[in-house]
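Subgroup meeting minutes
Present: P.N., E.W., G.H.
Scribe: E.W.

1. P.N. recapped why we're keeping a running log of single-chain structure predictions: easier to compare across weeks, and new members can see raw inputs and outputs side by side.
2. G.H. added today's entry (180 aa).
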Amino acid sequence: MFSVSSRHEKEILLSLDQMIVTKTDLKGQITYANRTFMEIADFQEHEVLNKPHNLIRHPDMPRGVFRLMWKTLQKRQEFFGVVKNYTSNRKQYYWVLANITPDFNNAGQLAGFYSVRRPASRAAIAALEPIYQQMRQIEAKLSKTEGPDASVAWLLDQVRMSGASNYEDFVMSLNKDIIK
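Output recorded in log:
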């Protein structure tokens, strides 16, 4: 399987009972991280608070997935996605099924985002790795603004061909064995 990451990286396998939780402000800066996040990603609290959440972004992740995520969140809808993240030393990674929801303050105003992540199924990872690889190839041929939009369009075509109505349904169907 093609990967832009090093072959020397080691995967961390999360157990089904591990839940990673973070909160961010409207710009994606981390305002809260639970102990599980800090243990798995190998960060201290002071290293993540008020830092961009993309500090754990793995280069194998196409920008288009995050473009789709932000478009979904801007509509004040929750987003489900399968994401590959780095640890602090960039020598380890882990796959998660992420559920990101808008976080509203008491006045009903959007205040940030709340993310709960659990391990992604092996079936989801196997299905999405070649899709993400193709998305990265599409992005590499185009500009930084055109690439993510083109890769999202291609992704959504693949999702429709699978019979799913949207990316979130597609992702959830791939993870049905671990979601009870």
